[in-house]
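Please produce the structure of this protein holding iron/sulfur cluster.
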Amino acid sequence: MNKISEKGALIKKVSGYQTAILDFFQDLFEKNIFDAVMLPMKIPSGDSFAWIMIKDKKILNNAQPLAPIMPVNAAKALKRYTRKGKGTLKIAALMKPCEIRATVELTKLNQVNLDDVTLFSYDCVGAIPMQDYIADPKTGDEKFEKMLSENNLNHNDVKPVCKICDNFSLSATDLHFGFNADKLFLVTNSKKGENLLQKLDLKAETDLQKWQKAIDEKKKKRVKKREETFKTVKTKVEGFSKLTETFADCIGCHNCQSSCPICYCRQCYFDTSAAKPNSDVVLMRAKDRGATSLPLDRIMFHTGRMAHMSLSCVSCGLCSDACPVNIPVAKIFSYVAAQTQETFEYSAGASVGDALPMKEYKLNELGELGEMVKSAEAQEGEHE
Ligand code: SF4
Ligand code: SF4
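Below is the modeled complex.
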């Protein structure tokens, strides 16, 4: 998706951003532009949210487009709909920028099909940690609505990864809701988005410079904070003994893996019987070392997951939210992901057009390794 618009279309906003965005989607429904809308909605018990594919306008009235928490990454919800084919409905889906990035990664992995899906994102103030919200949803709602109305991107009550996220605004989406100085506007970011704006007869006439400047300034601060945080993470994870210490509390529940939108394998090796050693193996390890902790191979699970998916990690923080023993999994994975992605000159979720390095091998991508392969191939050629 290429950035097309330099101006945004002003959206009527009588009360808050929530209402204005909901009104916008209701209007799309009335005009029969989409068959269904995918938005978050509060569950009946009132202490969490679920992703809902809405076809009935009456139900749409109960949706809450900007949810304070992320119980499931929206990319994973969309994958459930399109992983076996593109479906039959024209869908509008609103997501946080990290969820858009995860959607982009899953699209490249053929697990999401965007042919009939129009993606909307918005300036994200962050999400409240799940455990905090569940403990007191009323206070969580109040805090979040205040953050939204003030467009406060520096709130202390959001998830640790949200505090260091520098991709909180326009992403590889079709359309993006920008918030600035109490104004709400829609920015097109693809041909699909531009066509929709035309259909709605919305004119992109609002200058985006002021908004862009504010976003850039906030980004700079986040980058600095991110670098500082990563320095601390480095001291806790580099080297086997530090890594073991950091994951000492891990109970091997694999919640971090099952909540991760990027853990894309249909069958995870670590959940197969091959990865679950029998009693002989456990006793052999205990004999070799004097004792062994159970469950076995926790570090192998985490390093295996890092090796597998850190190229595509979008720092959404779902893994930390899901961890019952409060290991800062998301910060650790974000730290590793930053290095892996820098090595491969890749940015997860930046664009559907960027090839996934693991799917597109280039001979010179790892310098020395490329040279070794070339020389091995040359030797093989000589022997033929
Ligand atoms: S590893 Fe954690 S932060 Fe990264 S994409 Fe998966 S759930 Fe999100
Ligand atoms: S969620 Fe936490 S306890 Fe469970 S496997 Fe992941 S790091 Fe370990």
